[in-house]
Amino acid sequence: MMNKLALTILVAASAHLMSTGGVKTNDWSWVRGTHYRINGDAAKTARELGYGKRVGLNAVRFWVSQADFKSNPKAAANKYVTFVRQAWQAGYYSMPILFNGNGLDPAMLEGDAWGECAEYAKAVVEALKDEPGLLMWDVMNEPTYNRWVGEAPDQDEKNRRRGKTFEFIRRACALVKKLDPASPVTLGCASADEADRTADCVDVLSFHDYSSTRGEVEANYARMDMIGRKTGKCVIQSETGCTAYGNGYDMAMEACERHKFGWFFFNLIIHGYTETFHGVFYADGTVRDPAAIAAMMGCYRCRDLETMIPAQPFKPGEEERLVAIIGNLRKAMEGDMTQPKPRAHLFEEMERAANYLECCEMVSMNVPPTAKIFAWRKNSEPPMDEVLRFARALADKLESKLPKKEAP
């Protein structure tokens, strides 16, 4: 019978058989993943994972809680097994994260704490190792990206703390491999340097990049390429996409495609503490940035001025159509706004003007004009002074896009 590792490798190879003409036994470039927070609600999980299937996602990365296993090992095991099975049924592989370096308590690195850490790791691995949906183990997320290391008083102490963390990592990776020799092991490294220093204890190289320019992104990806070639190990990008760092999803996805890196973006659902800077789908299945969705499907925004042809809100020679649209909006503003019908007519003309501007990308889409209009329509007593100011701004904006008439 084919063991799980051989089966996983076969799936990976098959995904590239048509494009490469052969089998690559260490190829994880087929991974198209996301981060997901387990919520314990089967219906909600099915709905949200369904959003990801629209864009071809096939893997989820998630944190496992040591506290869960400490308080109730049986319930914790059931929680994660249930999720991994549901994800697998929905078409996703799973990459559980055992330990998290971000909020690292240095006490866990001490020798007397190892027993508890090992017991926890064993409980997780024993619970999940035979699941067909298990992709690989992420033994620790961003091991040295934390205050304990970052706020060391000097470089020598920082190096000592990093070294102590790496000792723990090597021990943990060895334990997981012993417990589950059939599944690959990786580390969610916060940098190429961290990945290089721990490459000897993993099967797959994994790194995170939140760079804000294409030059920085390319430098980091190129270095990971080099480390991969040096070690003979495949590289995946297991965290990327953050508006607070200027790290657009489209920029990151394009780099992953260029370097043939499998990837996980952060985060599937827009929610919680990270809702203003991470996340792609809202809870209702709509999206914040369509460019992110397009990038996941291999389509990227044109940024070449020699290629770009900016959209215009009128056909050449038919500018009068736009003039009429503007005129209708201005006329609608003159109606009796205390009455429902004139208000409804105004909102209709406002939406028409807004759609012209939005589809030509002539306005900010951070909060689309149509979103404001839809909200006002739902309001039985909309703030009409604000509405009228906005309507005038739409008309003025659209009018500014008309070609300038030549002076006689």
Spell out the blueprint of helices and strands.
Blueprint: H1 4-20, E1 32-35, H2 42-54, E2 59-63, H3 66-71, H4 73-89, E3 93-100, H5 114-128, E4 137-141, H6 147-150, H7 155-179, E5 185-188, H8 192-197, E6 205-208, H9 214-231, E7 235-239, H10 249-259, E8 262-265, H11 290-296, H12 319-332, H13 340-359, H14 369-378, H15 384-399
Parallel strand pairs: 1-2, 1-8, 2-3, 3-4, 4-5, 6-7, 7-8
Strand order of the largest sheet: 5-4-3-2-1-8-7-6
Q: Given the structure, what is the number of helices?
A: 15
Mean pLDDT: 93
Number of domains: 2
Top-tier CATH class of the largest domain: Alpha Beta
Q: Could you say what the CATH architecture of the largest domain is?
A: Alpha-Beta Barrel
> How much of the polypeptide forms β-strand, as a percent range?
5-15%
| CATH topology label of the largest domain | TIM Barrel
Helix content: 40-55%
